[in-house]
Design brief:
The structure holds 2 protein chains of 2 kinds. By secondary structure, chain A is α/β, with parallel strands linked by helices. In chain A, 37% of the residues lie in helices and 16% in strands. The longest helix of chain A is centred in the N-terminal third of the chain and has 23 residues. Chain A is globular, with a radius of gyration of 30 Å. The two termini of chain A are 41 Å apart. The relative contact order of chain A is 0.07. In chain B, the strands form 2 sheets. Chain B has a 6-stranded mixed β-sheet, sandwiched between helices. In chain B, α12 runs parallel beside α14 and α17 runs antiparallel to α18. Chains A and B meet through α10, α13, α16, β20 and β21 of A and β2, β3, α3, α4 and α5 of B.
Chain lengths: 716, 514
C-alpha cells in the first residue's frame, strides 16, 4: 500500500459534465484520461509522478468499471513497451514515469514504438524532474523526442490547460500515428486548481475486446526493409500530419498585442513564470494580459516554422525562454530565421542562464535584461535607475547548515550502514557503489558509504570492473525496488555469469520506499490485485547465486557486521549476496500505529518502546550520532557550568527501533542508552510483580541514600 | 529604429495577489498546513493555487510549499508556481534554521514580508556529528530575521503545539491567523481545521496558543523559569554528613569570586561522585592552583581548573555508571519522560558492553596493572566479559548487580582505574602549572584541553590521543608569543571531527613554522 492514499480523492474522478473538479494536477490528469476514453494505463513510480501511479492504483475499481486495464509496470521499459497495444489497435493508452531517468530506461521501447507508429493514441506522461526538489541528474527529456521523432507537449501549468493537453495529445497522436509525450514539471504535478469536468468515456474498444479479436501487420514490425520505410514515413507523412494538426487546432497560443517590436517565445510550462516577471515589471496584468507579445509553445516538438515566422513578423527582437540545456528550441528557431533570411534578433541563452532552473528571480533578471536591449523605455523607472539602496541583510551562508534528505526516524537502512561503517573501521575502506533509492542517503554524512550511482538496479553492475577480486573485495548496494526493476538481470545476473568475486548488499524494506511506498514483488503485504511475497533470496538462488545470507532484522547491527565480515573474508569465490530485510519504518508506523492505539483503547496489553539517554552518563562525544544521524537522536545543552559540550538526547519522536542501543553495544560506545517499554494494560500478575520489585528497589535505594550525600535530581 | 511602446501603470491588482511560502523539514506536516490555508482561502471567496515538491526530497530534508491567492473575479489570475526572492508576503518557517534559510534565499524582505518562524531546533546531521559543539548559532539567524522581515513573529511553535497535545502545523496556522497577514477572520481558520476533520480538538488548542503567541499575548511560562533558579549545587543526605558538607561549602565560599561558582559546582560533583573527603581533596588540589594564580590575572587559571579538576576527578567508571543507573530520581524522571501514567508499567533495559579494560580497572591497583599488562589475561577477560549485555533494571537480578557495583565507593580509591586517573590528573595539572610563570595564557589553555577527554572505550582512547597530541604540540610552541592562541586553535580543531583530521592538519601547520 502506498504511503499516501488517494481513496477519498478518487471519488472526484466520477464527476461528470459541467461539474467542477478542484485538486492536484496529477488527479486532474487521471480524470482527463478517463474523460478521453483511455483503454489502458500503466507506468513506474518516481517523483514527481509517483502520486499519479498511486492515484491510478487507488482508482483501479473505477477503471475496472470502465473496462480500463491498469498495470503497475515492472519498470519504465515495461511501461513504454505496453504502449505496443496502440500499434495495431485503435485503443488509447497512457503510461507515466519520471524524466529523464525513466525515459532513459524506457528509451528502447519508445524508439521501437516510434518506428512502428501507432493507430490508437499513445501518451507518455513524463514528470520532468528538473530544478529544486529533483533527486536525479539534471537533464532534459526533450532530446528523446528529437531522436525518436515523437511529439512533445509542454502545456501551461494550470489544470484546464493540462487536462486539455491530455485530449490534444491523444488526438495529435492519432492524427500523426506517432506517440506523444506530455511533459509536466515537478510543481505542475502537485499544483492545485480547478477545471470543468466531462463524463468519463468507456473506451470504444477495450483491451479485452481487442485481445479477443487479434490483429497483426508485419509492416508495423521494426525489421528491414519495413524499418527503412518507417524512417521515411516519419518525415514524409507523420511529421507533416502532426504540423497540420498543431496548426489547425491552434495548440500553440499567442497572447498580447498584435503589433510590437518585440516578443517572447516561451515553453508552455514556463508561461506562468514569464507572466510573473512581466507582472513585476508592470507589463502584464493579474490575468496575464500582456504588453509584450507571447508565443506559447504548448507543443515544444515539433516546432512550426511558419507559425513562428508569422509571430516574428514586424518584430526586431525575440526572446526564447527555454529551461535547461542544450537549447534545442533556440537552435531550431535560429536556424529557421537564418534560412528565411530574417533580420529579427534572436535572444535566449544570452540573457538567460544556459543551465539550471528558471526561478522567479532568474526570469525577472532575464526578461529585464532582454527589455534593456529590446525596449528599455518599457522598463519601469526603478529598474532603469534604481535609487533606493536595499538594506543589507546579514549573510547567513556560513551559519545555516545544509539539510539534505536522509534516513527517517527508525529507518531499517540506518543499521545496515552503521554496520558497514563499523566494518570499514575494522577492515579498512572498501570500493563501494550505491544504487538508486533511500539507501543512497548512506553516501552522505555521517556514514559516507559508497561513491557512485549509475542508475536504478545498476549498483552491482557498476562495480563490475572490480569484480575480479583481489586483496579487498568490492561491495555494492542494491535496493529491493532496484532489484526487481532491473537489478536481478543486469546486476545479479551479470555477477553470476562473470563469476564475480564481490559482495552485494540488497536493502529490502518491503516497498519501493523512496518513491512513496508502492508494493514490489517481494513486498510482504497482501495486495488484492498484485502478486507480492516473492522472496528476493529465492530469486537469487534461481539465477544461480550460491552464497546468499538472509538477515531478517536489520537492526541487529552485530549480526550484520559479522555477515559482512564473512562475505569480505570467506574463501568462497563467486558472488556473495546479503539480503538485509526490515520494513520501511514510515510505512510500518503508518500501518501499526492506528492498530496499536486501537488495541490500547480496547484494553489489550501493548508494549510501546522508546529509547533514552542518561544525560549524567553521556559525555557529549557524539560518537553515537556519527553512527546514526537519526532525526530523533539529537543534542541538548545542559544547564551545568562544568559541561562544555551538548549531550545526546532522544526526543519523543523516537519509534524505539533499537538502532541506538544496538550501535552502542556493537561499537562499544557507552552505557548511556536505555530502552523504556511502556506497558499499556499490564496483566494483574505483572502489576503485582512490578509493585513488589519496586518496593524492594525503593527500600534498597532509601537505605543507601540514608548513608550518603547526593544531588537530588537527575541532569536534564 | 524602435517602435516605442508606452509604459503603462502597473496593474494594482497584481499587488493583491498574496504570496505565501512554507519552509519546513520533511515530515513536519507542511502539507497539512498548506492544505488548511488553501481550503480556507477558497472558502473565503479567493482563488488559490498551491504547489509542493513531494518524493524523496522530503525525507527529513529541507522542503518548501508555496501558495498564491487573490480575490475571485470573472477571470482567473495567473499565479506563479514557486516563490521568488523579494516577492513573498508571508513566509512561514517551521524551524529556526529554516528561518535562516528563508532569509538567505531572499524570501524575506523588509518591504513586504511577514515572517512567522518557530525558534525550536531540529539539528542537521552536520551540527550533531561534531565531537564538540557544532550547533549553529540561532542568535545570528534571529538578528538577520529582525532586519529582513517587515513583521516578525518568532516563538517556539513546536513546544507550544506539543504542549497543547498537537503538532506544529496547528500552532503555525494559529500564528498565521494571529499575525493578521491574511485578510481572513479567526473563524475562517478554525473552520478550515474543522473541515479537515482530523484531530480537530487538539489542533484547535494548538491553533489558539499559536494565535496568542503571534499577538504577543502568550502567558509567560513562569514555573519553568523558577525551576532553573533553584540552587543546582545543593546536595541532600543524612544530617550527620550535612555538617561536613556545610564545612566544605563554607571553605569554597571563601574562594575568589571568579572561581567560586565553578568551584561550588565542582565540589558538588565530586562529593556526589564519592564523598566529603574526596571533596576536600578537590579543594586542596584547587588550592595548589590558586597559590600560583592572582587577582591581577582575574583568577582565570583557577576558574578553569575548578571546572576541569572536578571533571577529571569524577571520571566515568563502572561504579559511577552503576550508581547513576540505580538512583531513585532516575526512575521517576524516565517515567515522566516516557509519559508513563499510573496505569502503565515501565520496563527498563540498559545497554552495557564492558570490555577487559573496564574489568581490569575495577581490580585493585597493582593487580589491575599487572592484568592489563598481560595480553593473555586481557584476552581471557575479553572472552569472559566482552559482549553486549541488556540489563533489565526494572527487575531484581540486574538491579541488584548494578546496585552492588554502584555501592563500591569505599573501594573505588584503591582501584587500578583510580590510580590511572590520579596519575593522569597529576601529570596534566603539573604540566599546566609548570607553564604558569613563563606563559600564563598557555597554562590556561592547557587546563582547558582536558575538555578533549570524554566518552568511553574507543572514543575515550581517541580523546586521550588528541589530548596528548595537543599537549605535545604545546611543547613545540613554548616560548612563542602566540603559543596560547595556537593551543586554543588546536583544541577547537580536535573537536571538529572524530578521527582528528582537522587536528592533524593544524599540527602540520604548527610544525611548518616552529
Amino acid at each position: 500500500m502506498a504511503e499516501r492514499s488517494f481513496k477519498a480523492e478518487v471519488e472526484h474522478l466520477r464527476k461528470g459534465d459541467g461539474d467542477v473538479f478542484t485538486g492536484e494536477g496529477i488527479l486532474a490528469i487521471t480524470k482527463a484520461l478517463l474523460e478521453n476514453g483511455v483503454g489502458y494505463v500503466g507506468g513506474y513510480q518516481g517523483a514527481p509522478i509517483s502520486h499519479l501511479m498511486d492515484v491510478l492504483a487507488d482508482a483501479e475499481e473505477l477503471m475496472g468499471e470502465l473496462g480500463v486495464r491498469f498495470e503497475a509496470n515492472a519498470s519504465e521499459a515495461a511501461a513504454a513497451a505496453m504502449l505496443a497495444a496502440s500499434v495495431h489497435y485503435p485503443i488509447r493508452g497512457a503510461v507515466t514515469f519520471k524524466g529523464p531517468v525513466g525515459v532513459n530506461v524506457a528509451s528502447d521501447a519508445l524508439a521501437n514504438l516510434s518506428s512502428s507508429g501507432v493507430t490508437g493514441g499513445a501518451l507518455v506522461i513524463v514528470g520532468e524532474d528538473y530544478g529544486e526538489g529533483s533527486s536525479i541528474m539534471q537533464e532534459r527529456s526533450h532530446g528523446f523526442a528529437m531522436k525518436s521523432q515523437f511529439w512533445m507537449l509542454d502545456p501551461r501549468p494550470n489544470l484546464p490547460c493540462i487536462t486539455k493537453a491530455v485530449k490534444d495529445g491523444f488526438e495529435l497522436s492519432e492524427a500523426s500515428n506517432t506517440p506523444v509525450m506530455l511533459m509536466v514539471r515537478i510543481r505542475s504535478c502537485h499544483v492545485t486548481g480547478s477545471f470543468e469536468t466531462k463524463d468519463n468515456q468507456r473506451p470504444p474498444l477495450t483491451v479485452a475486446e481487442a485481445a479477443a479479436n487479434p490483429r497483426s501487420d508485419f509492416n508495423r514490425v521494426v525489421l528491414p526493409p519495413m524499418s527503412y520505410l518507417h524512417e521515411k514515413d516519419k518525415i514524409e507523412n507523420r511529421w507533416p500530419a502532426a504540423e497540420k494538426f498543431i496548426r489547425d487546432n491552434k495548440l500553440n497560443e499567442v497572447f498580447g498585442p498584435e503589433k510590437a517590436p518585440l516578443g517572447i517565445v516561451v515553453q508552455g510550462g514556463m508561461y506562468n513564470s514569464v507572466i510573473r516577471a512581466l507582472q513585476r515589471l508592470g507589463l502584464a496584468d493579474i490575468h496575464g494580459e500582456t504588453d509584450v507579445p507571447l508565443y506559447v509553445l504548448n507543443v515544444t516538438y515539433p516546432l512550426l516554422k511558419d507559425e513562428f515566422d508569422n509571430f516574428c513578423a514586424g518584430k526586431e527582437h525575440v526572446l526564447v525562454v527555454e529551461e535547461g540545456q542544450p537549447d534545442h528550441i533556440e537552435q531550431q528557431l535560429g536556424s529557421y530565421l537564418y534560412k528565411l533570411e530574417r533580420k529579427v534578433k534572436l535572444h535566449g541563452k544570452d540573457v538567460l542562464p544556459m543551465a539550471g532552473e528558471y526561478t522567479g528571480q532568474v526570469l525577472l533578471d532575464g526578461v529585464t535584461g532582454f527589455l534593456k536591449i529590446a525596449a528599455p523605455e518599457m522598463l519601469p523607472g526603478a529598474v532603469r535607475a534604481p535609487n533606493a539602496e536595499a538594506p543589507a541583510i546579514p549573510d547567513l551562508t556560513d551559519t545555516v547548515p545544509i539539510r539534505p534528505p536522509g534516513f527517517c526516524t527508525g529507518c531499517p537502512e540506518r543499521p545496515i550502514f552503521a554496520a558497514m561503517k563499523l566494518t570499514e573501521q575494522e577492515l579498512g575502506k572498501h570500493q563501494i557503489t550505491g544504487d538508486i533509492g533511500c539507501h543512497l542517503f548512506g553516501v552522505l554524512p555521517p556514514f559516507e558509504i559508497g561513491g557512485s550511482t549509475m542508475g536504478y538496479g545498476l549498483g552491482p553492475a557498476s562495480n563490475a570492473a572490480f569484480d575480479g577480486g583481489g586483496d579487498k573485495r568490492v561491495i555494492s548496494i542494491l535496493g529491493d525496488g532496484g532489484f526487481w526493476h532491473n537489478g536481478l538481470s543486469t546486476s545479479i545476473g551479470n555477477m553470476v555469469f562473470n563469476k564475480s568475486d564481490s559482495v552485494a548488499v540488497i536493502v529490502d524494506n518491503y516497498y519501493s520506499a523512496a518513491t512513496g511506498g508502492q508494493d514490489v514483488m517481494s513486498s510482504r503485504a497482501h495486495n488484492d490485485t498484485k502478486s507480492t511475497n516473492n522472496p528476493i533470496s529465492k530469486a537469487l538462488k534461481g539465477v544461480g547465486v550460491e552464497w546468499v545470507r538472509q538477515i531478517d532484522r536489520t537492526y541487529d547491527v552485530g549480526k550484520l557486521r559479522e555477515v559482512l565480515r564473512e562475505a569480505l573474508t570467506t574463501d568462497y569465490k563467486g558472488p556473495k549476496v546479503i539480503v538485509a530485510s526490515s520494513e520501511c519504518m514510515l510505512n510500518k508506523q503508518r500501518r501499526e500505529k492506528p492498530l496499536r492505539n486501537k488495541a490500547i483503547k480496547e484494553g489489550r496489553r501493548m508494549e510501546v518502546p522508546r529509547f533514552g539517554v542518561d544525560a549524567d552518563v553521556c559525555t557529549g562525544d557524539h560518537a553515537c550520532i556519527r553512527l546514526s544521524g537519526c532525526p530523533s537522536l539529537s543534542l541538548k545543552r545542559l544547564d551545568d557550568p562544568l559541561r562544555d559540550d551538548p549531550v545526546a538526547h532522544i526526543d519523543q519522536t523516537c519509534v524505539g527501533c533499537g538502532n541506538c542501543g544496538e550501535v552502542a553495544d556493537t561499537a562499544v560506545l557507552c552505557p548511556s542508552f536505555y530502552q523504556a517499554d511502556v506497558v499499556h494494560n499490564p496483566t494483574r500478575f505483572e502489576r503485582w510483580r512490578a509493585d513488589k520489585t519496586a518496593q524492594i528497589i525503593r527500600w534498597l535505594q532509601d537505605r543507601r541514600d540514608a548513608k550518603r550525600l547526593r544531588s537530588e535530581g537527575v541532569t536534564t | 529604429m524602435n517602435m516605442v511602446l508606452p509604459q503603462k501603470t502597473p496593474d494594482v491588482r497584481v499587488e493583491k495577489i498574496i504570496k505565501l511560502a512554507v519552509m519546513a523539514v520533511g515530515g513536519q506536516g507542511g502539507g497539512v498546513l498548506t492544505g488548511w490555508i488553501e481550503a480556507m482561502a477558497r472558502a473565503e471567496g479567493y482563488v488559490c493555487q498551491a504547489t509542493s515538491v513531494a518524493g524523496v526530497a522530503q525525507r527529513t530534508g529541507a522542503t518548501i510549499y508555496y501558495v498564491e491567492m487573490a480575490p475571485k473575479g470573472a477571470l482567473d489570475p495567473v499565479f506563479a508556481l514557486a516563490p521568488a526572492a523579494g516577492d513573498v508576503d508571508v513566509l512561514i518557517a517551521a524551524e529556526m534554521m529554516e528561518v535562516g534559510r528563508a532569509v538567505m534565499r531572499g524570501f524575506v524582505t523588509p518591504d513586504r514580508t511577514t515572517l512567522i518562524g518557530s525558534t525550536h531546533r531540529a539539528l542537521a546531521v552536520s551540527e550533531k556529528m561534531a565531537p564538540g559543539d557544532g550547533i549553529a548559532d540561532a542568535d545570528e539567524v534571529r538578528a538577520a530575521a529582525e532586519i529582513a522581515a517587515q513583521n516578525l513573529i518568532l516563538e517556539d511553535m513546536e513546544g507550544l503545539a506539543v504542549g497543547a497535545g498537537s503538532v506544529i502545523s496547528a500552532s503555525l496556522f494559529g500564528a498565521l491567523a494571529g499575525s493578521g497577514a491574511l485578510p481572513f477572520r479567526r473563524e475562517a481558520y478554525e473552520n478550515a481545521i474543522r473541515a479537515g476533520g482530523k484531530g480537530v480538538e487538539p489542533s484547535l488548542r494548538a491553533f489558539a496558543v499559536g494565535f496568542d503567541a503571534a499577538q504577543g499575548k502568550l502567558q509567560q511560562t513562569a514555573p519553568a523559569a523558577a525551576e532553573k533558579e533553584a540552587a543546582p549545587f545543593q546536595l541532600v543526605g543524612p544530617e550527620a554528613l550535612q555538617a561536613e558538607w556545610t564545612a566544605l561549602v563554607s571553605r569554597a565560599d571563601r574562594l575568589p569570586e571568579p572561581v567560586h561558582d565553578l568551584a561550588l559546582a565542582g565540589l558538588a560533583k565530586v562529593v556526589n561522585f564519592q564523598d566529603c573527603a574526596y571533596g576536600a581533596l578537590y579543594l586542596d588540589r584547587l588550592d595548589t592552583v590558586l597559590a600560583r594564580d592572582s587577582a591581577a590575572r582575574d583568577w582565570r587559571l583557577s576558574a578553569e581548573a575548578a571546572k576541569y579538576i572536578a571533571n577529571a576527578m569524577a571520571y566515568d567508571d563502572i561504579i559511577r555508571v552503576a550508581d547513576l543507573k540505580t538512583r531513585a530520581p532516575r526512575f521517576t524522571h524516565i517515567r515522566q519522560e516516557m509519559r508513563a501514567g499510573d496505569a502503565n508499567l515501565m520496563q527498563l533495559t540498559e545497554y552495557f558492553h564492558p570490555r577487559a579494560e573496564e574489568i581490569a580497572g575495577l581490580m585493585p591497583a597493582r593487580l589491575g596493572a599487572r592484568v592489563e599488562a598481560s595480553d593473555k589475561w586481557m584476552a581471557r577477560l575479553n572472552r569472559w566479559f566482552d559482549k553486549g549485555r541488556r540489563l533489565r533494571t526494572d527487575r531484581l537480578p540486574a538491579f541488584l548487580m548494578l546496585h552492588f557495583l554502584g555501592g563500591l565507593k569505599g573501594y573505588r580509591l584503591k582501584t587500578h582505574r583510580h590510580a590511572i586517573e590520579v596519575a593522569h590528573l597529576d601529570n596534566w595539572l603539573g604540566r599546566c602549572l609548570d607553564e604558569v610563570d613563563a606563559d600564563y595564557a598557555l597554562a590556561v589553555e592547557l587546563v582547558k584541553c582536558r575538555r578533549l577527554i570524554k566518552g568511553y572505550s574507543d572514543t575515550h582512547a581517541r580523546g586521550l590521543g588528541k589530548f596528548d597530541k595537543v599537549v605535545d604540540a604545546a611543547d613545540l610552541l613554548r616560548g612563542r608569543e602566540d603559543a596560547a592562541d595556537w593551543v586554543a586553535r588546536l583544541r577547537e580543531a580536535a573537536l571538529q571531527d572524530a578521527d582528528g583530521e582537522a587536528l592533524d592538519g593544524a599540527i602540520a601547520t604548527v610544525r611548518s613554522f616552529v
